[in-house]
Design a protein that fits this description.
- The protein has 87 residues and is mainly α.
- Helices cover 72% and strands 0% of the residues.
- Helix 2 crosses helix 3.
- It is elongated, with a radius of gyration of 15 Å.
């Protein structure tokens, strides 16, 4: 039974890592499709241009409140933002 738990934990870790990478691609694609500069997106959701840049480059991820703000702004689900579903 222990091996199944390790395997499941490994699978979750891999999927989480993939979602983080996918978020960077999705957020940049959505911003570009909306023809917004990073600074314009940042102002619209109450953050900084630097944070938007960090998200798009996969350096950091937004907190939950910001993730929800992004989903509402772009009219997509949080699952779509993190790549668990296609938008």
């Amino acid at each position: 039974m222990k091996n199944k738990r390790i395997s499941r934990a490994d699978a979750v870790t891999r999927r989480t890592s993939a979602a983080k990478n996918k978020f960077a691609d999705v957020i940049k694609q959505l911003r570009c499709e909306a023809e917004l500069k990073q600074s314009e997106l940042a102002a619209a959701i109450g953050t900084t241009q630097r944070k938007v840049s960090y998200w798009e480059n996969g350096k950091v991820e937004p907190d939950l409140d910001t993730l929800i703000a992004l989903a509402l702004f772009f009219n997509v689900s949080t699952d779509e933002l993190v790549g668990l579903k296609e938008y």
